């Protein structure tokens, strides 16, 4: 069957909007439709059947919200995807890009209020929108005289019809104690302790990584994320699992028994009916614990029952890794570094010695092969961002046969990649140049490195939210009028999602961030992007650890980071003259003090990098012995040579 054009899809969707039944009134229709890049579990990454934004607009990024009216089609997305979205719209003349985060871009609610006819009805699938987002939209639209209505059927799915991919039915496997470090029964016990403190009769668990974590199970229903489609409702006595039970392997079912989890099984589709029954049985003093990040539809199922809407206790447990998970994450990053060193050494040899043409795609394929050789490898943690020159400026660029180009010695090469190992999840970015970079490229790279160094070596109070640290990574770019339009860091799962909530480091606050605590893993990834020219990003994964400080104000406790990524920084791209802070002062005494400060900071940054490279060398050299690793070992030894100024 020939693929329908974007214009045909939009036309069919608008026909359905005209006649859709609203509030029991047939044929009233809706004046606007909101389409989220979510599934029923509010997942960041989606299986094929849930990529409704891509189907209707052509945009393939992981974050976006579309609003479609009778004569407009708009897509809100953030700075990671401005360039990509504009290039992918189908048809481009129908779609308007709304640059979320730009000062002149209205919110979705503000745009609807300003552009809809009086007393309009806005429709959305309430299964695919979190309660928080629904509540914000509902409040704004109601105040302006409009109405936000949950639709009984998803209109995108109706347009998609028989072409919509089927649901995944992949097998579910156990995550044994060797890697989890804690039984499922113990995790459930801790959840019930939290429920008792909040006087909650029921805990509703909807996020797929939370379901996988509490049950110590892993799946593959969503590419790159070891999760499976299921809901859990936990009471003080039982655990109700809503799942296609045929997907559970015998080993998975046996481990649940061994870890003292008494499961009551239900079909996946029965979640709404069961939750309504539970809600109807609650007394006035009993509460249902359901996160505001869960869908509005599930919140509606709770009716008038009292709700506790904080993030679930699983979210915090999952973010603070236990000792087994910490050691597993470190070990996974060591093996991952071996694969990356082999890849970069191989790639440089192919390019410099002109042995064969390596493209963005073939390079990514070779890197995956090196990772497959590592113990406990389970797959990639996201599609490899292998990007040359201008493609590097597309922050989440994914090479395709249509866009694939050779990696050469003429342009910057940005490689952002990661893997899923059974003992940990990795995510690392390096930027390299195999020829002669320009002075501006070297300056930008150096300022990005300075930001990464500054954040990695920072000391901060226990429980401070990551949002407060974001400026540290940006100040050396800001000082010369440069910036990047994505967050600086995200949480990382332990053989779970590579982007793990609720923690992060960003210019925008994370509302559910509980504060940084020892045992958390976050990325540290400042960057700079010159549209249509190049992109630069450096990414390490950091473990939050206790800091040794001479004082401890009010016994607060202070923290710092331990870098677990062990891949050399490309020193060829560093401008050593910029490894300093360039404040300006007209007074002589202040000038002398600044010079002294510059010298201290310069020595610190050089010492920081030399120490880091020594760690890389000492850790990886024993793993790169033998004739098959001569190329990789020589590259490692050269790239980790001490620098001086």
List the keywords:
6-stranded mixed sheet; 645 residues; 35% helix; 19 helices
Task: Summarize the topology.
Layout: H1 6-19, E1 32-36, H2 52-57, E2 65-69, E3 73-77, H3 82-88, E4 95-99, H4 108-115, E5 121-124, H5 131-143, E6 147-150, H6 155-160, E7 173-174, H7 177-180, H8 184-198, E8 200-205, H9 208-215, E9 217-218, E10 231-235, E11 239-242, H10 250-258, E12 263-266, H11 271-281, E13 287-290, H12 296-301, E14 306-308, H13 313-319, H14 323-352, H15 360-372, E15 377-380, E16 385-388, E17 413-417, E18 419-421, E19 424-425, E20 428-432, H16 439-456, E21 460-461, H17 470-478, E22 489-491, E23 500-505, E24 521-524, E25 527-530, E26 534-537, E27 540-546, E28 558-563, H18 588-620, H19 630-639
Parallel strand pairs: 1-5, 3-4, 5-6, 8-13, 11-12, 13-14
Antiparallel strand pairs: 1-2, 2-3, 7-9, 8-10, 10-11, 15-18, 16-17, 17-20, 18-19, 21-28, 22-23, 24-27, 25-26, 27-28
Condensed summary:
With about 650 residues, this protein is α+β, with helices and mostly antiparallel strands.
Protein described:
With 645 residues, this protein is α+β, with helices and mostly antiparallel strands. 35% of the residues lie in helices and 18% in strands. Helix 14 crosses helix 15, helix 14 (323-352) crosses helix 19 (630-639) and helix 16 (439-456) runs antiparallel to helix 17 (470-478).
